[in-house]
Design a protein that fits this description.
The protein contains twelve helices and ten strands. It has 306 residues and is α/β, with parallel strands linked by helices.
Length: 306
């Protein structure tokens, strides 16, 4: 089954070679002028292949941002490498990611290895290090892109009142918010804490950088050179109602809200085991057909489960 899934994913990528997007060489990462044109996805679970939802995130982002370089970092030694259009698949290691950052010593101490949340903690750490080193945009793999991203050099996404999301953001290379996130990460890290080095830490460092007491004050006074996107930009459905993406009873209402969204984020932590079938009429299926049609077609051929 795993071999079949890998083959299916390979077919998706190969079939997309025919789509005419702009090819960007990975070496551009060292070019400061092009740094804001990078979009990073990071798969930290160690899976040998990507599932259809993850591939949909990549395809939809590539389709809507054709002149940006989409870089997918995978922490596996043996995976099929694909390079199509504006997407770069790259194998890496945590040693490489954390080298030369405040997180390097923390990683080798391996306190994270005792945590039941280690995949999440390593993911949080890796996104701070990657964007600090290279600059650009970080996106979680549980999204579907709906339209082109704004051309801001620096932006964050407000998840709710006084909370910034660390799963979707864009910052310039060597930005002090990220450097301070990494420094504080080492200081506050606790292996049994789920979110303390994620959105909580990111929000704290953002507010501190802007010289305010909370996110609402930053938004009101526009006190720093970082754009704040409204929650509807990626969360037309709040996380407590994530199931609404996978039923058809509220499709029309949600799709109307999505007109004001750049993407939808479906909280994989909760929704990963939710199985969809062809013609479900759900928001998620509709979003797939419109924004990652190649992935959707391959998923249907594989048995109709999404």
């Amino acid at each position: 089954m795993d071999n079949m899934r890998t083959l299916q994913v390979g077919l998706i990528f190969c079939s997309m070679l025919s789509i005419l997007y702009f090819l960007v060489d990975f070496r551009l990462l060292s070019d400061h002028k092009s740094a804001t044109k990078n979009i990073f996805f990071i798969e930290t679970s160690g899976a040998s292949s990507l599932n259809f939802r993850q591939v949909c995130a990549i395809e939809s982002t590539a389709r809507h941002n054709p002149f940006m370089s989409i870089i997918v970092l995978l922490f596996t030694k043996h995976h099929v490498k694909y390079e199509f259009s504006n997407v770069q698949m790259r194998s890496t290691t945590f040693e490489e990611i954390f080298e030369g950052t405040p997180l390097e010593k923390w990683y080798f101490q391996k306190k994270w290895n005792r945590s039941v949340y280690k995949v999440y903690h390593l993911s949080d750490a890796a996104r701070y290090a990657v964007i600090w080193k290279h600059g650009g945009i970080y996106l979680d793999l549980d999204i579907i892109m709906l339209k082109s991203l704004p051309s801001f050099s620096n932006f964050v996404l407000k998840a709710r009142a006084n909370r910034i999301c660390n799963g979707i953001f864009g910052l310039q290379r060597n930005h002090s918010i990220l450097y301070n996130c990494m420094k504080d990460f080492v200081k506050v890290y606790k292996s049994n804490c789920f979110a303390c080095v994620g959105p909580i830490l990111f929000t704290k460092r953002f507010v501190s950088f802007c010289g305010e007491k909370n996110v609402d004050d930053v938004e009101k006074r526009k006190s720093c050179n970082v754009n704040i996107l409204n929650p509807i930009s990626a969360f037309p459905v709040p996380y407590r109602k994530w199931r609404d993406y996978f039923t058809n009873s509220k499709s029309l209402d949600i799709i109307e809200k999505m007109n004001n969204s750049y993407m939808i984020h479906v909280w994989n932590k909760f929704s990963s085991k939710k199985i969809l079938h062809k013609n479900s009429g759900s928001v998620y299926e509709i979003a797939m057909t419109r924004n990652c049609p190649t992935t959707y077609a391959q998923a249907i051929k594989s048995g109709g489960k999404l």
